Amino acid sequence: MNPLELESLSKKIRIEVIKMLAKAGSGHTAGSLDVVDILVSLYFSVLKHDPKKPTWEDRDRFVLSAGHMVPALYAVLAEAGYFSTDRLETLRKLGSPLQGHPHYDLSIGIEASSGPLGQGISVAAGMALAGKIDKQPYHIYCLVSDGEHDEGQLWEAIMFCAKYKLNNLTLIIDRNNIQIDGLTEEIMPLEPLDEKYRAFNWYIEEVDGHNIDQLIKVFEKSKNQNKPTAIIANTIPGKGVSFFERDYHWHGKAPSQEEAALAIKELESA
Amino acid sequence: MTVETKDQVIVKKATRDAFGEAILQLARENKQIVALSANLAESTRLDGLIKELPDQYFEVGVAEQNMAGIAAGLALSGKIPFITSFAAFSPGRNWEQIRVAICYNNANVKIVSTHAGLSVGADGATHQALEDIAITRAIPDLVILSPADYYEAKKAVIAAAEYKGPVYIRLSRQPSPFITDESTRFEIGKCNILKEGKDLTIVAMGLMVNEAMLAADKLEKEGISAEVINCHTIKPLDKQTIISSVKKTGRAITAEEHQIIGGLGSAVSEILSENYPVPIKRIGIHDCFGESGSAGELLSKYGCNCDNIVEAAKTLISNTK
Ligand SMILES: Cc1ncc(C[n+]2csc(CCOP(=O)(O)OP(=O)(O)O)c2C)c(N)n1
Ligand SMILES: [Mg+2]
Predict the structure, then answer these.
(1) Pairwise CA distance, residues A243 & A238, whole Å
(2) What is the pLDDT along chain B (321 residues), one digit of tens a residue?
(3) Selected catalytic residue, list B42, B59, B64, B311
(4) How far is the CA of A36 from the centre of ligand 2 (A)?
(5) For residue A237, what are the contacts with CB-CB under 8 A and spacing of at least 6?
(6) Which of A23, A32, A88, A94 to substitute to test the interface with B, most B CBs within 10 Å?
(7) Is B130 helix (H, G, I), strand (E, B) or coil?
(8) CB-defined contacts A:B, below 8 A
């Protein structure tokens, strides 16, 4: 797919995500909407994967460390063909594989359980290390949130990845500047974030997290480094819907059916 | 919150709401009290305190381990810190900091955790703390409170502030009916007999106390007389009350929104098997993870409602006639 087609796919996914959240009646709207372009770039251009063979050993792996943003991942996985899009409406319902936070289930493309922040990046580091030990060709991608950087475990993993030169790992940082009830720079200041990663001996790139063309280019670049890569993806929380955008109150709230209808209308007419 | 059923109006409130009100009241009266949040201030109901007493509030970010350590340092320097998060993360993630920095120092820290149990609902297994009592119960010098309703939660928070030493308070997100009222006695380490009976003893904690009362009503109609004990203090366990009740009834059931391994069921089994062995059945989660769903659906699916207690009671009685 060319970047234009991917952009319209992103729009479709955003609509899907809003429907899922409204139907579930709970979930995380802001982050789920702002990581869509990143996930679309990965699953429809960058990742080496086969939805019909989810256990294929040579596949690239994606770990969603910021597990609360999983509605976007489910919508992307369904669109990619891991499972039928009909199942998306079972999000957060009893008995559904589409759990409120990711539950390890390769049959639907979920590579690791996550949700408690700071853990996914360590699991991704372990997968990357295994790839090195076994001289496997696959690449590991991991998405962490900015608020997740408050956890000590994340920095433990950052040091580990640099020590073992895990250049088969690419970390995407969802830099949306919010974390639950406030701005990251008020709750726990992170800046200068790029300098921190550089000091920890990582290769660092910064990108507009909604520019699919640019995202794909930096992902390709990240495969040819001699150290692990961190991509700071600047995103707008609630991306695509004016009354969600940049408002941290939408961190952990699902839209009502009326709000969802308005949001979908706005996305469709954009 | 009010829920209207066919013939009555049931008023419900979550125990986390009681915490929000109690901590504000305590912090007004005692400037040594400080509250810490790991980026869940609103969910744990600290918003009132933050608004009125911002100088007594500290946001540590999503860093539960650091929060426990900071609280220990504050306590060793004369403050009375309340640390707050979801039970899955505190004491879930910061268990070892609670063990050493807080308990081994005997630091006067209050660990207040909301979103305990299956009733968390749709967030799923990662966010449903079902092992928190098991892991905290094994730590020396830690008092553990699991209040049954809004009024009791308020009293538990106030009692914890008055008590000198580490306390863990387990609270719920889910609004639940009132079982106690403003005048019900609350004393750490002294459980309350809510209903007297002679055929079996039901020892329950948290949201399961209400289920135990409902079960006792149903059993009464079938001619089975159940004694119901509200075990709001898991540690130190009120051995005397539990043992003397069981001496009278000869059978025990425990009920908790927690794994049956290591929780209230284990605690009661331990003291009874050493002091006065009787047949026991444990109601709770049977060694598995939870999942997404509504609170009601999950409590039914995982065997944590009044019907499970009724069934267990009947089996126990028919097995021991
Ligand atoms: C260990 C842990 N502590 C607390 C939480 C609760 N929590 C869920 S999302 C979140 C905010 C983190 O910030 P970020 O991921 O940047 O949030 P967003 O951008 O989606 O608002 C927190 C504290 C958690 N999931 N895991
Ligand atoms: Mg964020």
Answers:
(1) 8
(2) 555 555 566 789 999 999 999 999 999 999 999 999 999 999 999 999 999 999 999 999 999 999 999 999 999 999 999 999 999 999 999 999 999 999 999 999 999 999 999 999 999 999 999 999 999 999 999 999 999 999 999 999 999 999 999 999 999 999 999 999 999 999 999 999 999 999 999 999 999 999 999 999 999 999 999 999 999 999 999 999 999 999 999 999 999 999 999 999 999 999 999 999 999 999 999 999 999 999 999 999 999 999 999 999 999 999 987
(3) B64
(4) 14
(5) A30, A31, A33, A34, A176, A177, A178, A244, A245, A246, A247, A248, A250, A251
(6) A94
(7) coil
(8) 90
| All domains of chain A in start order, with CATH | 3-269 (3.40.50.970)
Is residue B64 among the annotated active site residues?
yes
Q: Which residues of A touch B (CB under 8 A)?
A: 24-27, 67, 92-96, 98-101, 103, 113-118, 147-148, 150-152, 179-181, 187-188
In eight-state DSSP terms, residue B198 is S
The reply to whether residue B291 touches residue A94, judged by beta carbons under 8 angstroms, is: yes
A92 to B65: CB separation less than 8 angstroms, yes or no:
no
CB-closest option in A103, A115, A179 to B39: A179
- A126 by Cβ neighbours in 10 Å (0-12 / 13-18 / 19+) ranks as middle
* CATH 3.40.50.920 is the classification of domain B192-316: yes
Residue with tokens 């949130």: A145
Report the CATH fold assignment for B2-177.
Rossmann fold (3.40.50)
